[in-house]
């Protein structure tokens, strides 16, 4: 068996593989043209010395054991910037949407075309939360439309979730001018609306897309790369949260779609662990 084929088999089985740079094999496509056609004792010896673990090798039963259930990481609640947002805790869907449409708590009401409340199944088992409306969302009054919306729909279809079966909302209900990042006071003014949406839906899982949305929702500054791959909990709540990349970012950086697929699999497997088929 040639080395590139063997390396792919080992990786598929989840066995760690450490290869010197001069023998590296590309993860995605073809073997390194500089790789020897056959492995001799001269080429195998340095490879063996590098891949040898510091401790005793794991038993085969460990290597092929069932994967552990996703670990839920609690997020300690942090203080949110105070705002003059109304108490939404008793509002139903119609009253909540009307309150958002009439909202003038921050300066964004002066530049918006219309508010973007949210859309989808109001008893969804899964909720998606993004950052803020863009230009097209501002025109249509709906979240995640256009190219990023189509990609999001395809991402959900990949784990057998129909878009109409989930609920989609944003941290902000109004578009920031020129798609700039939301200001802390703007996010704070909108937070009561989003919290009420979450309370009305009572989702079994929230998939938050993008760094800014994750930081606002989880009240953290941890880099997105470190937030990925774990199940968090919404502050002051028990709702599980999984973090992934924003579809707009994936359109600019298509190589990251592979990592986004890992996040979607984590979401699917977590729902399955709760007895919900995604």
Break the fold down into its secondary structure elements and pairings:
Elements: H1 3-12, H2 41-51, H3 60-63, E1 72-73, H4 93-101, E2 119-120, E3 126-130, H5 135-140, H6 146-157, E4 167-170, H7 184-201, E5 205-209, H8 211-218, H9 224-227, E6 231-233, E7 240-244, H10 247-252, H11 257-273
Parallel strand pairs: 1-6, 3-4, 3-5, 5-7
Antiparallel strand pairs: 2-4, 6-7
Poorly predicted spans: 19-65, 77-83
DSSP helical segment count: 11
How many domains would you count in the coordinates?
Answer: 2
Task: Using the alpha-carbon principal axes, give the shape.
Answer: globular
Determine the structural class based on helices, strands and strand pairing.
Answer: alpha/beta
* Helix fraction bin: 25-40%
Number of strands: 7
User: What portion of the residues fall into strands of 2 or more residues?
Assistant: 5-15%
Radius of gyration: 23 Å
Quaternary state reads single chain
CATH superfamily of the largest domain: Uracil-DNA glycosylase-like domain
Name some characteristics of this structure.
278 residues; Uracil-DNA Glycosylase, subunit E; 7-stranded mixed β-sheet
Quick summary of this structure?
With 278 residues, the chain is α/β, with parallel strands linked by helices. The protein has 11 helices and 7 strands.
Folded structure, characterized:
With 278 residues, the chain is α/β, with parallel strands linked by helices. The protein folds into two domains: 3-52, no CATH class; 73-273, Uracil-DNA Glycosylase, subunit E (3-Layer(aba) Sandwich), CATH 3.40.470.10. It has helices at residues 3-12, 41-51, 60-63, 93-101, 135-140, 146-157, 184-201, 211-218, 224-227, 247-252, 257-273; strands at 72-73, 119-120, 126-130, 167-170, 205-209, 231-233, 240-244. Strands 1-6-7-5-3-4-2 form a seven-stranded mixed sheet, with helices on both faces. The two termini are 38 Å apart. The model is unreliable at 19-65 and 77-83 (pLDDT under 50).
């Amino acid at each position: 068996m040639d080395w590139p084929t063997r390396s792919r088999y080992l990786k598929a089985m989840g066995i760690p593989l450490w290869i010197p740079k001069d023998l590296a094999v590309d993860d995605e496509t073809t073997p390194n043209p500089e790789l020897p056609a056959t492995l001799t004792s001269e080429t195998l010896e340095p490879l063996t010395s590098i891949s040898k673990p510091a401790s005793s090798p794991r038993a085969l039963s460990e290597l092929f054991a069932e994967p552990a259930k996703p670990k839920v990481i609690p997020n300690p609640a942090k203080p949110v910037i105070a705002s003059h947002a109304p108490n939404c805790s008793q509002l139903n869907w119609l009253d909540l949407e009307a309150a958002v449409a009439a909202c003038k708590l921050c300066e964004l009401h002066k530049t918006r075309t219309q508010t973007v409340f949210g859309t989808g199944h109001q008893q969804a088992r899964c909720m998606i939360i993004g950052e803020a409306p863009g230009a097209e969302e501002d025109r249509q009054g709906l979240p995640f439309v256009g190219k990023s919306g189509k990609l999001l729909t395809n991402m959900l279809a990949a784990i057998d979730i129909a878009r109409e079966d989930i609920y989609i909302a944003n941290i902000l209900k109004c578009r920031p001018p020129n798609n700039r990042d939301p200001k802390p006071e703007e996010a704070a003014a909108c937070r009561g609306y989003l919290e009420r949406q979450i309370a009305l839906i009572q989702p079994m899982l929230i998939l938050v897309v993008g760094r800014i949305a994750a930081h606002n929702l989880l009240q953290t500054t941890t880099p997105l790369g470190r937030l990925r791959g774990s199940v968090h909990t919404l502050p002051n709540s028990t709702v599980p949260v999984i973090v992934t990349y924003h579809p707009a970012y994936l359109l600019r950086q298509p190589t990251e779609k592979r990592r986004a697929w890992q996040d979607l699999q984590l979401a699917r497997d977590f729902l399955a662990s709760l007895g919900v088929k995604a």
